[in-house]
Each structure stands twice: as structure tokens, then as C-alpha cells.
Write a structure and sequence with these properties.
The protein is of the alpha/beta class. Helix content is 46%, strand content 16%. The model has no long low-confidence stretch (mean pLDDT 86).
């Protein structure tokens, strides 16, 4: 089984690299999120091939893909779908629900913070419930279902930042940085491209659902679970003795964050062919799970203390 796991990871990585140069860490984090049935928020400046990466990955995994460009005038029905009037053979009229772009396995929400809260909520509700309610009818979304949302960190004018409660629905928050020097040399030398026509799926949705179930059922030791519980409680001002946290944190990480941390550690262990997660697996994804869930107070903002620094202090004090 270990051999099959490694083969799966290598096949995914090799096929993605036919289009995407570098970004191995981002690819691994996206795979962790996918195997954990979680959603991911990618934060990065324009021109880093975020859209190309996600669309390529969906094709490699044999999943349907749709992209929604979020704009200030985007309406909830532009995402979820709407009812239209149709006419039958006898001339009678009836309403038919026309499904929106959210009805795909992979949904890329480009610049999600550009749409107003009402539209954001429509997508975030679908992420949580995995179904769309319209009128008196419920329309389930096909599994697996993933939302990869992007945000531009340098252009904040005319945007609507995601509320903390909605950020918590994203399993991972990933900062996509500029490529390494050698990778950038290769990117510059390559012409701009779309998805390579010779990309072949390495799996399908049925096999992926089985892999997700295997990750979910992977055992975890009490030591790992206790470690995660201690990490969670160390982020909360009322539950910790760490003065740095008590001074700078308004709200710590929720229990849902702990669930995602354990599941993500299992998925990372799975990718490396190990039967159970280790402390290293937990620490490797700690920032991606914690940074967007820790809310710093006014004093932290005044002193230039970020949630990333809070996570770093929690990690050093707890390990």
C-alpha cells in the first residue's frame, strides 16, 4: 500500500509539473486539503499561475472544474444557479433549475474578497453544507467537492475582507510566494501556456473518494491528539500561561481547527507512505491551519505582531 501511495503522489506531481514549474510545497498542501475533504484559501500576487495550477490539478485528478471571477456586481445566483421558465410539448410552462458554476468537483473562486458579503456567503454556505437550497428544493453537490479561493494581498481598495467566522471554513490558508531563482529562470524561458494537451488523469473521483476514506480512518496516537489539544489551548488567552499570547491574542483557534490539523497531519503521513501521523506532520502544516484562525488584538496590531508570529511562539512553547 505504501508503494501505491508514493506512486500516486509522484504521478500527480509529475503531471502537474508538465505545466507548472516549481511550487512543490503549494502542490503538496493542496493535495493534503483534497485528501482531507477541505477547502483552501491561496493568498498571492497576480502572475504566479494560481488559476493554471488549480485547473491543472483538477484535470490530473480527473475531476470537473469551474472558475468564478468574483467582482463587486456578482450576485449569489451567478454562483449557485437560478430557475428559468421552460415550455413543455403541450405548451405548458414550468420552472427548471439551471445549475451554476458551483456544481463542479473543483471550484476556483478567484479574488473572493472582491464580491460583497451576500455573494461570499452563498459560496461559503455551499462549502459547509455541500448543497444548494433554492426555493423549497435542495440540490446536493457531487463529492468530492473542493473550493480553492484566491486573494490578492496588495490590492485592498474596493474589497470585502472575509469575516473570521467564514475564514474558519477554509481548512488551509496558503501564502503563494514568488518562485525560487532556478525555477524563475525556467519560467522566463518558457512561453505563456495553458494546460498541456497531453495531460492524462492519474485517478478519478471514485478512487479519490476511497483515498479520502482511507485518510479519515488512519489511526492517530493519543500523544498526537494531546499535542494538538495543547496547541489549540495555547492559542487562547484564557487557557494559556504564555504571557505573549495573553498580551496579543483576542481569540484563539477553534476545535474545528484542531480537527483539520489532525486530518491534515493524517493526509501528510499518507502522502509520505506512513501508517500514522507524527509530530513532524502536525508541525509541517501548523501555520496553514492556525494563521488565519488566530485573531490578534489592537495592541498586537500596534506593535506589528502578526498571527504568524503567534503560531510560531505557540509552536516553540508547546513542542
Amino acid at each position: 500500500m505504501t508503494k501505491n501511495r508514493k506512486s500516486f503522489v509522484e504521478r500527480v506531481r509529475d503531471n502537474v509539473h508538465r505545466v507548472i514549474i516549481g511550487q512543490d510545497e503549494i502542490i503538496q498542501l493542496l493535495l493534503i486539503s483534497i485528501l482531507s475533504e477541505g477547502h483552501t484559501l491561496i493568498i498571492g500576487v497576480p502572475g504566479l499561475a494560481k488559476t493554471l495550477l488549480v485547473s491543472t490539478l483538477s484535470r490530473v485528478l480527473g475531476l470537473s472544474f469551474s472558475r468564478v471571477q468574483f467582482t463587486p456586481d456578482l450576485m449569489p445566483t451567478d454562483i449557485t444557479g437560478t430557475e428559468i421558465i421552460q415550455e413543455d410539448e403541450s405548451g405548458g410552462r414550468f420552472f427548471k433549475f439551471l445549475k451554476g458554476p458551483v456544481f463542479a468537483n473543483f471550484v476556483l473562486a478567484d479574488e473572493i474578497n472582491r464580491a460583497p458579503p451576500k455573494t461570499q456567503s452563498a459560496l461559503l454556505e455551499a462549502m459547509q453544507e455541500k448543497m444548494i437550497s433554492y426555493g423549497k428544493e435542495d440540490y446536493p453537490l457531487e463529492s468530492p467537492f473542493f473550493v480553492i479561493a484566491t486573494q490578492n494581498p496588495i490590492e485592498q481598495e474596493g474589497t470585502y475582507p472575509l469575516p473570521e467566522a467564514q475564514l474558519d471554513r477554509f481548512m488551509l490558508s496558503v501564502n503563494m510566494d514568488y518562485p525560487e531563482f532556478e525555477d524563475e529562470l525556467n519560467i522566463i524561458a518558457s512561453p505563456p501556456q495553458s494546460i498541456s494537451p497531453d495531460i492524462k488523469p492519474v485517478t478519478d473521483r471514485i478512487e479519490l473518494l476511497k483515498l479520502q476514506q482511507e485518510v479519515k480512518e488512519m489511526p492517530a496516537s493519543k500523544k498526537i491528539i494531546n499535542h494538538i489539544a495543547n496547541l489549540l489551548r495555547s492559542t487562547r488567552p484564557n487557557d494559556t500561561n504564555i504571557d505573549f499570547i495573553r498580551k496579543y491574542v483576542e481569540w484563539g483557534v477553534s476545535p474545528r481547527g484542531g480537527q483539520y490539523l489532525l486530518l491534515g497531519a493524517k493526509a501528510r503521513a499518507f502522502l509520505y507512505g506512513r501508517p500514522t501521523p507524527s509530530i513532524d506532520d502536525v508541525n509541517a502544516i501548523l501555520h496553514s491551519v492556525f494563521d488565519h484562525r488566530i485573531i490578534v488584538n489592537f495592541l498586537a496590531e500596534a506593535d506589528g505582531i502578526s498571527s504568524k508570529e503567534i503560531t510560531e511562539r505557540v509552536s516553540s512553547e508547546t513542542n
